[in-house]
Amino acid sequence: MDWTDSATGTAIVGRPHGRIDEASWEAFLAGITSRILVASEAGKGFVLDLADVDYMSSRGLRVLTLAKREADGHGLTLTLARPNERMREILAISRYDRIFTVADDLPAGAA
Predict the structure, then answer these.
(1) Which pairing describes strands 2-7 and 11-20: parallel, antiparallel, or unpaired?
(2) How many helices (H) and strands (E) does the chain have?
(3) What whole-number distance in Å separates Cα of residue 71 and Cα of residue 79?
(4) For position 111, what pLDDT does the model report?
């Protein structure tokens, strides 16, 4: 799984690319966990940019649950940003849109 990262004054932004499913969930978990630690050490929030995620299986949703716990444990905010229509539907059906802050845009200064 490939990632692109950027930072703003208030957040680390991680952008995974592709599908998050049985074949890629472990790489997704490793990637999101390491980025949460970087954000925590920097005293910033973490924004997961979903713009390039085509699909997320239940394994990926489980990773989001674990990531939320990890972020909460570090006292930082985890925001899901720019989900496409399919991802919005997945987040709504699973009710993850009630657990996470879901933003239409990235924070100012993020590329």
Answers:
(1) antiparallel
(2) 4, 6
(3) 10
(4) 56
Is the alpha carbon torsion for 57, 68, 95, 50 positive or negative? negative
CATH code, domain with 21: 3.30.750.24
Residue 5, CA distances (Å) to 8, 17, 34 in order? 11, 11, 12
Residue type, 39: A
User: How far is residue 12's CA from residue 9's CA, in Å, rounded to a whole number?
Assistant: 8
Residue 34 lies in a domain: yes
pTM for the model stands at 0.93
pLDDT at 71: 97
Q: Is residue 108 part of a domain?
A: no
Q: pLDDT tens digits, residue range 50-105? A: 999 999 999 999 999 999 999 999 999 999 999 999 999 999 999 999 999 999 99
Q: Would you give the distance in Å from CA 103 to the centre of its chain? A: 11
